[in-house]
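Here is the promised in-class demo. Please do not try to memorize the tokens; focus on the logic of going from shape to residues.
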């Protein structure tokens, strides 16, 4: 479904990576690891179509993502390495607001179930500024529970999570 071929990325005058390629079928996961500054986020941005590689191609369902445009983005859920939550809002309010911005219907009951699944039961009405970093990451990841898009690109999804949180996200 998602295929990268011979990708190359240069930032400034520094080559971050070259010759990167992979093919993922439905239900498969690729976990990128590397040192800070090695190009993981740059690769994610290329895969999302937010940046262009110096060389190589990215295909979704056999077609170049650049030619698919909005049709590709409608099938994509991108969660960056920042949590993209508002500290002033509660976890429940954050989930509902994010769904509204994405023009995706989300029932408050389904949002509460997602928060419970991510281990946030009892914290759904607490302002996010009072949550730990791991709990904030769980709020951001709770979006995935009700996400119906076929492609998820998650930048550093396991940051600040304990072992149980990592297992939970991998299971999603």
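The designed amino acids, position by position:
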């Amino acid at each position: 479904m998602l295929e990268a071929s011979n990708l190359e990325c240069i930032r400034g005058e520094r080559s971050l990576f070259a010759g990167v390629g992979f093919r993922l079928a439905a239900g498969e996961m690729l976990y990128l690891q590397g040192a800070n500054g090695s190009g993981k986020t740059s690769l994610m941005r290329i895969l999302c179509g937010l940046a262009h590689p110096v060389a190589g191609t990215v295909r979704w369902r056999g077609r170049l993502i650049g030619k698919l445009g909005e049709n590709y983005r409608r099938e994509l859920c991108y969660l960056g390495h920042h949590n993209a939550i508002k500290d002033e809002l509660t976890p429940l309010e954050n989930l509902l607001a994010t769904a509204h911005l994405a023009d995706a219907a989300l029932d408050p009951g389904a949002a509460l179930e997602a928060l419970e699944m991510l281990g946030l039961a009892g914290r759904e009405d607490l302002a996010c500024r009072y949550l730990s970093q791991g709990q904030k990451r769980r709020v951001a990841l709770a979006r995935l529970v009700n996400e119906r898009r076929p492609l998820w690109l998650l930048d550093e999804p396991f940051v600040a999570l304990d072992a149980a949180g990592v297992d939970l996200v991998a299971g999603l």
